[in-house]
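stage 2 :: seqdesign
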């Protein structure tokens, strides 16, 4: 995963995090991939996205139960935590964050999503968007009152319909049935700082033919070359069986890896309703 402040902004309000699953008895067989894109100005978005990532992680690894049930609890807990924190700190009033999370357990993935960050599945050369954009223009496209091409240039493209922390009611998109994974599947999560500037076909091309780490670097660079007017965050993960990769280094359960400061810093553990232009 990589996150970059972009070419225009001075503060990175995105948070990215992942926990790799392990087959070691000392580790967790459950994995987490998450991107949160904060909003609110004056670093409030950074606070909101960091709270979301930490609360979701804690719930996922501290609560027993079925993954969809835990994700529902986790997203509502994160929503309440951000809302309550903003109520107690006037300087953070109105802050919120998108949050898109994929949980991996065994050979299955589950999605939980709020806002306009995205999760994709790349299988072979076919890229499928798993998350549903919760934006005004996406809703209008789904209802047939706007075309996809019109949506790209709409003056309302920055209006999102739902975010964590902006209200006490939340209806996240949750996988009721898990997504079966096969070897070679590539999972991609990203903020709109990437998918808003880089076409899906370019995302599929880079994520499909490069290693995950190289793909992250090239995707961030592509967004920067396209203007980089927002923070840019992306994670690329490829499914492979233990039997197919016995020489791979063993991964233990780790804490999340929040947002990176630049594209040159890769996978190093460090702390890290209308969108403002």
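stage 2 :: out
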């Amino acid at each position: 995963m990589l996150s970059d402040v972009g070419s225009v902004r001075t503060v990175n309000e995105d948070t990215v995090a992942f926990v790799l699953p392990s087959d070691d008895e000392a580790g967790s067989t459950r994995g987490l991939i998450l991107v949160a894109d904060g909003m609110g100005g004056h670093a409030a978005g950074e606070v909101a996205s960091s709270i979301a990532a930490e609360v979701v992680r804690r719930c996922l690894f501290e609560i027993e139960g079925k993954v969809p049930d835990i994700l529902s609890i986790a997203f509502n807990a994160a929503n309440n935590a951000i809302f309550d924190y903003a109520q107690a700190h006037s300087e953070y009033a109105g802050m919120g964050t998108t949050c898109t999370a994929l949980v991996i357990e065994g050979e299955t993935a589950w999605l939980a999503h709020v806002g306009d960050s995205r999760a994709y599945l790349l299988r072979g050369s076919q890229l499928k968007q798993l998350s549903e954009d919760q934006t005004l223009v996406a809703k209008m496209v789904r209802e047939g009152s706007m075309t996809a091409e019109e949506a790209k240039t709409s003056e309302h493209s920055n209006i999102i319909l739902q975010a964590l922390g902006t209200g006490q009611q939340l209806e996240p998109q949750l996988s009721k049935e898990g997504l079966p994974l096969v070897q070679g599947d590539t999972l991609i999560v990203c903020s709109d700082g990437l998918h808003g500037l880089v076409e899906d076909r370019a995302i599929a091309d880079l994520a499909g033919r490069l290693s995950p780490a190289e793909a992250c670097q090239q995707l961030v660079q592509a967004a920067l070359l396209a203007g980089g007017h927002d923070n840019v965050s992306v994670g690329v993960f490829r499914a492979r069986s233990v039997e197919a990769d016995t020489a791979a280094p063993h991964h233990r359960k780790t804490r999340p890896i929040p947002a990176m400061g630049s594209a040159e810093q890769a996978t190093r553990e460090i702390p890290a309703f209308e969108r403002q232009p």
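stage 3 :: structure notes
- Helices lie at 44-62, 67-88, 136-143, 148-152, 192-195, 200-209, 212-225.
- The longest helix spans residues 67-88.
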